[in-house]
Amino acid sequence: MSSNMSYWQRIAGGVRAEMARQRKDANQLMEVLHLSRNSVYRRMNGDVPFNLNEIATVSEWLNVPISAFEFDPRESRIAA
């Protein structure tokens, strides 16, 4: 992914890519995260960062390691 993207935009891109590979959609993610459609889309677009609990939940749901989303805690601050 492009280096001029923010850390959280890269995370969102990783989530979108894995969801596409598994043919999962935002409606399913809404149910998994217990968030509104708007909240899910803002996270998927990288406008609002996923928090650590959300990333862990998504990782578990997609059955991939968190590192699949380019997760590197040295590179960013964790969203609260």
From TrEMBL:
The segment(s) forming the Transcription regulator BetR N-terminal domain are 16-67
Biological source species:
Leucobacter viscericola
Protein name according to UniProt: Transcription regulator BetR N-terminal domain-containing protein
* UniProt-listed InterPro entries: Lambda_DNA-bd_dom_sf, Tscrpt_reg_BetR_N
Spell out the Pfam families in the cross-references: BetR (PF08667)
An example Gene Ontology molecular-function term: DNA binding
Origin superkingdom:
Bacteria
